Structure formats: structure tokens, C-alpha cells
Amino acid sequence: MSELLNELLGSDKTEVVAFAQEAQDLKKQYEAKKLSESEYKELLRDLEHSKAITASAGDLETQTKLNGLISGLISVASLV
Amino acid sequence: MKKLFIALSALMILNGCTVISTVPVIRSYFMANFDNNEYMLINTVRTQANLGAAKCGTPEVITVVDNIYFKTIELRNYSQSIPHNEETIKMSSELSEIVKGLSERYHGKDPVSLNYCTTKFGIIEKNAVTIQNVVGAKPR
After folding, report:
1. Is residue B12 packed enough to be buried (19+ CB in 10 Å), middle (13-18) or exposed (0-12)?
2. Which residues of chain A have pLDDT under 50?
3. Which chain B residues contact residue A76 at CB under 8 A?
4. Is B116 within 8 Å of chain A by CB?
5. Distance between A39 CA and the closest CA of chain B, angstroms
6. Which CATH number does B36-136 carry?
7. pLDDT for A30-40, tens place per residue?
8. Where are the domains of chain A?
9. Cα dihedral sign for A53, A50, B92, B140?
């Protein structure tokens, strides 16, 4: 598990590194007994929820850009 | 009609000329616009998470937890009734799952650790910022 975590921390994708850093931070807190087992598990599940939020945010950002493009093209077409 | 045809033709060219690949374009054309109430709700969740972390370890934290849970559910319910709003519905549902855990823990029997509390508020705030940025950028 530690090897996989180190591999992810060395990724060239910033979002993967950020995800791995958060997981590593939680692991350290759990090992230092600053989090109970159930708290640790819940916070790890939260990382999954965060990943889903980031993905949907990316989709919405793309949609907004496309919407701007369409509106721009329609405006240009209106001038033709 | 001719103008619309020109605009759609240009979009189809940009999307590779296939009917299927135009679907995201069509979806984006009809996407939900910026909504003041939606934006206000996510801003409230963000602000409460931002200020709530300082209350960890004090009895006042329970009030913040209850408020943030209420506002998160309010955001989820509000966004669900807006047509063509799938991404925001998904994000608000995921956020409500995160906050639900916080609420359940503070209303449960087991003690809540200080690290859990501060980390949880940090996670909620980070995700609320992500949502706020994209909700705030929706077309006017």
C-alpha cells in the first residue's frame, strides 16, 4: 500500500498528487492515533466524494465554456 | 433559421461532425443558468465550514454542524428542481454525503476527535470552494 501511495505521490498529474497527499496525511493522523478507526475510514470515503465533486465540476466548467462558444457563434451568425 | 443552421454547422465541425458528439454541445446550450439562490447557499456552506473549524473542541460546534447540514440539504433540494442542472445536483448530493457523516458523528454516542473535526471542516470547505467556483461561472 505504501509503494502505491509513493507511486501516486510521484505522478505528473497534480490532482492525483493532491489526492495521494490527502490520503497520506490521513494515514499519518491515524497512525499517530489522532483519529479513531471509524473516523479514518469515513474521511477516506470523503476523498471518494471529493473526487466525484471535482469530476462534476470539470464537466460543468466544460459545459459553461461550450455554452459561451455557442452563444458567441450565434451572435456572429446573427451579424451575417 | 439560416443563421441558426450556420451556427450549428460550425459547432458540428468543431465536434467532429457526428450526431453523438454534438450531444454535449446541445446539453451545454440548454444548461441551467447562474442562480443567485444556488450561489448563496454554497457560499453559506463554504463560510460556515471556514468559521466552523475554529469551534472544534467547544460545545458551540454542534450549532455549526446543524446549520451546515441544514444548508447542504437545502442546496441539494434546491438544485434538484432546476432543469438541466445535473452536474450541480451531483456535486450537492456528494457534498451532503460528506456533511451527513459530520452530523451523524456529533449526534452519536462516541466522542469526536479534534483532528477529525478540523479535517472534516477542511474537506467541506475545499469542496464548497470547488462547487462555488463553477456555480458562480454559470452563464448569466
Report:
1. middle
2. none
3. 7
4. yes
5. 6
6. 1.20.120
7. 999 999 999 99
8. 2-79
9. negative
